[in-house]
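Support case: user asked for a sample of complex input and structure output to validate their parser. Sending the pair below.
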Amino acid sequence: MSALRRVCLGGALCLASALAQAAEPLSAADAAAWLQKVANAARNTSYEGVFVFQQGGAGASQQTLQIAGKPTGHDTQTRLVSMDGEQREVRCSQRASFTLMFNGAQLQMEKRLNNRHFPDLLPAQAAPLANWYTVRAGVPDRVAGRECDNFELTPKDRFRWGYVLCVDKGTAFPLRAVMVNGEGQPLVQYRFTDIRLGASPRIDSKPIPAIPDAARPVQNEKIGMAALPPGYARIAAMRRQLPNRPGEVEHWVFSDGLTHVSLFLEQASRPVEPLRGESKQGMTHMIKRQVGAWQATVLGDAPWPAVEAISTALEARP
Amino acid sequence: MNTQPSHIQSHRHAAPDSQGEALSALLDGELPAEEARDVLQHLNGDAAARARFAAYVAIGDTLRGQAVRESDFTAQVMAALQDEPTVLAPMRQQDTRRPLLWLAAAAVGALTWGLWQTLPNPDPAASMVAATTAQPVPVQSADVQAYLAAHQDFAQAVLAPAEMNFTRVSFVGGHP
């Protein structure tokens, strides 16, 4: 590992990490404690602000979103509003999450299958991440007008991408999160440009018309897993429709808490032509192959080894 | 030699409204994938049709009461048409090289991905294999986009524009 790593976040903004001589990895206990602190802060803070979401490095297009979050008892309510492009809103809570799209007088709604998003990137039980990522303190920084501290989450193996989190000095609230590849190049970036911590947002809790669930449970699992990469567990399994495609597929999601890999299972009506691919910037990988009578498509924002390992481990149940 | 598919031909040479209907249907996402692709290719080569399409976009926006940002949208559509990558078949399995899949959402960015929200997905990669090339060939597939969108329900979970099971709820007078 080189003495000084630089994580470039696009354009001229290069984040010089404090790896030079001084920064030792946090001990496992300290790392676990820090991770849990950040996860709690994201969930237990009232806030209002604006953040920018960007895929890829310098010059990649961005989405700007207004966001408000309010902890309510054991839950957190959030509302996101798109600031550019189509007018859309997302409302999330553990109970139900929706995307709303406004087209003049007509409102389109869809139920979301997941209720978590930036800044709530770490899982509720975040301490185990210390098993799979080394945490190192980086340089102090300033994001959205607030003093913050950078931390590098470096994968301990080749089954996941890394992260650089910049968290608010006082509260450990995530102000910036960058998913990085093995060379420290940014893959995905979330960054607050404006934030008011401790604000009391009014998140509309008007009842929303009941709409059917977008997914239903899986019964009679036809595929088994011989093994999963370290730290990965299946966090979701459902039957659902793919966007713009008729019919139902089975969608499983594997995760180590930060990284997500999806598996799509469909009945193979004819022999499946194996296909492998990766996205242009190398963040996402995909393998499609036949497993028993099924077409299994594994797709994840993870390095090749993770997607390959999961695809290889699939076996048809008799 | 006119090699255009028959439905494009009929749209062009039949009553003028047929072409307009095709463009209008394209805008409303009511064309099947193959037809939509043909219309898009036709647009690419026909300036008059493009102008008409731009007019339809503007009309639609006006009817829906949206601020006229039609020039923006048109520019996006035109840019997308020009940028539409050559669609090539996956490499044969005997080939030891891995095909590069051009996963639209990850590779191209939010802008273009959002664009394809309102227009139907392009045809699955089903056409010619590229001539001699030593490089892995890019493939754009509607299937891949669908998987990617579904995956992003869990992976990024911001405003990744994945349309799933819509329920149209109408509120008279605008927002609830």
